[in-house]
Write a structure and sequence with these properties.
The chain has helices at residues 13-16, 40-48, 50-77, 84-87, 151-163, and strands spanning 2-4, 26-28, 97-107, 111-122, 137-146. It is of the alpha+beta class. It folds into three domains: 2-48, no CATH class; 51-81; 97-163, no CATH class. The chain has a three-stranded antiparallel β-sheet, with helices on one face. It has a two-stranded antiparallel ribbon with strand order 1-2.
């Protein structure tokens, strides 16, 4: 939770960033004030770019939709486009599973605090199939490392290996 002292201002915390005012001490969770630690000009610059970025994404999707018939034709000619029913065996009832991983690196004064975790869950199992995992499988580790520019790359590799 981020605690802000707005005692010298006369409006609430949501109006504080728009104009300076006077009110009592207000406590806001960090989730409601995500930009509090950033300079106001930086946030305004970033937010001013959202319209242009939205237009670029829209143009990209529009181009894909426009080119869709030609792409579909090329895939069919190369025999790469199939119906899902053609690729599944009718006698097979597929099960589902989920695998995910996460990592974080907290840069401390003299070391990096690293946490890595992976999770695997057997999901929906058809009635005629055997369930192998009654509970989720997980691996996790927390440790410290000396500062190094390649720490993130190594940690991501370890996380991927843990997921496998």
């Amino acid at each position: 939770m981020v605690i802000h002292d707005y005692s010298r201002y006369s409006c609430d915390a949501t109006q504080f960033h728009k104009r300076r005012c006077k009110t009592s001490r207000i406590m806001l969770p960090a989730s409601q004030a995500p930009f509090d630690e950033l300079p106001e000009a930086l946030v305004e610059t970033m937010l001013s770019r959202t319209g242009a970025i939205g237009n670029e994404i829209t143009k990209s999707f529009t181009k894909i939709l426009h080119d869709k018939p030609q792409i579909r034709q090329l895939l069919q000619q190369a025999a790469l486009l199939k119906k899902d029913a053609d690729s599944l065996n009718d006698n097979l009832n597929p099960t589902t599973c989920g695998i995910d991983g996460a990592y974080t690196i907290e840069k401390m004064l003299s070391t990096d605090l690293v946490a890595i975790a992976s999770l695997a869950v057997e999901g929906l199992t058809p009635p005629n199939e055997k369930q192998y995992w009654r509970l989720p499988h997980h691996r996790s580790n927390v440790f410290t490392l000396p500062h190094n520019v390649d720490t993130m790359l190594v940690i991501r590799g370890i996380m991927s290996a843990m997921e496998l």
